Amino acid sequence: MRISDKQLDLVNRQIERLRASNNFYGKRLKEAGITGVSSAEDFLSLPFSQKQDLRDAYPLGLAAVPEEKVVRIRSSSGTTGTPVIVPYTAKDVDDWAEQFKRCYEFAGVTNRDRIQITPGYGLWTAGIGFQAWVERLGATAIPMGPSNTEKQLQFMVDLQSTVICAISSYALLLAEQVEKRGLRDKIALKHGVIGSERWGAKIRQRIMDGLGIDCYDIYGLTEVYGPGIGISCKHNCGMHIWDDYVYVEIVNPATGAPVPDGEWGEICLTTLVKEGAPLIRFRTHDLTRIIPGECPCGSRYPRIDTIQGRSDDMFKTHGVNVFPRQIEEVLALYPQLSSEYQIRLSHLEGCDTMRIYVETDGTQDWADLSEEVAHEVRNRIGFTPMVKIVELGVLPRSEKKTKRVIDERYD
């Protein structure tokens, strides 16, 4: 997707702001002698930025405005290293709310809805992002946050919530609990705005069936506003990205070279109007593709496909690079298997082992099915794992992101 002249003008304003601020990226631009770009080719010569750059800038090295213009601080979780601190100006907060407004409109939300918000609050961007536009819209926000599933279910029933906002793992947990407790006819949910994790067609269908909703896949990340920079429409054929706020490139994860529309690669984002902490060519590690052509909904906003994983999700075993999505693709071939699985890596007697646990609600001979799945995995990745099929509900459920790969080799 070639950058437009209008977007190039906005990038030049960001370059000017960054150089003036002398923040980490402004210094990088000065060192490279870059004062602006005049073409798409020039844009591709701009240096990338990455998560480690943002960590190295801790605490406030991302700021591109004077402190008196900063009205809010957001942060990544910091679970895998130094947290990233992201400052926002008043305009950034308003712009983020406007993007969320579009998301809710695409999801069919109106001022007559009651929106139960289950993602986390605090420094993380999720909960407050989902709430940002609800009140401006005139809808009713129910800011539950994560956990306390008993109260979540109680409020769904008692307050007759019509929209649920959640990460896919927690939406699945809620759907299973609704089914288990026979609450399906007692709730009034219509729509689900789901994001934060990769989730396949099976999980989507189980959530939709369990809660009686249609689902919309929302996209975003803490470093770039937060959730809400894009969402799927009712046709469920990709997520529309608000390209007046962010420019999306898809690049080869290994080389950083742009790939043609329609080919898979890594999302690289440039914020076009963000003031507090502008980012240029930020490598997200999320894997997807630009979907060419027009969407049936008629929206002009470009689309990216469902996130297929992360370039840094890869693990190596038996000398082979393996991505979790490769395992998911195999499991999706078997209708009798559920969407819930877990990969465990161990090192026994001088050799790596990979065990795959997957749930089923089927009744056929599990030993035969395990052997069939193991054989198909070998065809895809080159070695045979141990596959154990377990009953539905045996694998742990999470109120946060579900951990799919557990590496015990170095414990």
Automatic annotation (TrEMBL):
AMP-dependent ligase C-terminal domain: residues covered: 319-409
Pfam families tied to this protein: AMP-binding, AMP-binding_C_2
KW rRNA-binding (keyword) present: no
Residues of the AMP-dependent synthetase/ligase domain: 64-269
Domain of life from the UniProt record: Bacteria
InterPro entries: Adenylate-forming_Reductase, AMP-bd_C_sf, AMP-dep_Lig_C, AMP-dep_synth/lig_dom, ANL_N_sf, PA_CoA_ligase
Annotated SUPFAM superfamilies: Acetyl-CoA synthetase-like
Alphabetical keyword list: Ligase, Phosphopantetheine, Phosphoprotein
Recorded GO MF terms: ligase activity
Record-linked Gene3D superfamilies: 3.30.300.30, N-terminal domain of ligase-like
PANTHER family hit by this protein: ENZYME, PUTATIVE (JCVI)-RELATED (PTHR43439:SF2), PHENYLACETATE-COENZYME A LIGASE (PTHR43439)
Protein name (record): Phenylacetate--CoA ligase
